[in-house]
Specification:
Elements (H helix, E strand, L loop, with lengths): L3 H26 L3 H17 L10 H17 L12 H4 L6 E3 L8 H20 L2 H12 L4 H8 L3 H20 L4 E3 L7 H16 L6 H4 L4 H20 L6 H14 L1
Antiparallel strand pairs: 1-2
Amino acid sequence: MKSNSDRDQVIPQLLEEHGGMVYSLGRRMCSDPHEAEDLVQETFLQAYRAWDQFEGRSNVKTWLYTIAARTCQRMHRRRVGQPKRMQSLDDLLPFGEANLGFLDPNGKSPLDEQIRREGKERIEEAIVSLPVDFRVPLILKDILGLSVKEVAEITDLKEATVKTRVHRARLKLRQALDVVLPKKKVPPAAYPMQVCMDLLRLKQDALDRGERSCPQLDAIVCQRCETLFTTLDCTVDVCQEIGQGRMPKELRDRILLHFRESA
């Protein structure tokens, strides 16, 4: 049986290590920063109260984020007017367009920096607009940096379902980024559509593994796919940047005070 002394050591440590990322989860699920703080507080207080129910069958981090995800979805049910459906895959793909948004990943000019700032704003707005069933896996995977397996455990979904939802959500974010990018004319796809879809799947799988470069792709992708993949890389980079946010010190102190009062 777990002791209170174990709980009083482990849960504050989880707050120090993961409080910022849970806060990032809250900010992307709740439009109001105060609601995001409520989510963080409720997550850690639930973990504190339920410590004796943690059986150790999963990683303690996975257990914590399961509480956070369920708290998110419970709070989300109180909200109205949120999108319920994701666009079809055909609507998210730009394969039929003559001009694609171009992003120079190495550009250093003031214009490049402005485009990146505007692109980040568009991506953040797009994250909040995702249907919740796609938003939660995307946040857990690309913003908080969890593995597909961990996200599947937390959301109680099959790994294949997690990947499908994350991949579709990334394409939605890429579409939002594309709006602010300068356009350039690109040649038609060099391969039949099914080959392009297979290459896109390989690229998404590489991103799932945290890889930007994929030897299977680098030598064969055409200019159209390369342009698309560069903007996908950018969306994942922005998500990772968002995940590095910090929890407000006042919130941290308030939660620690609750721990002491509950001991």
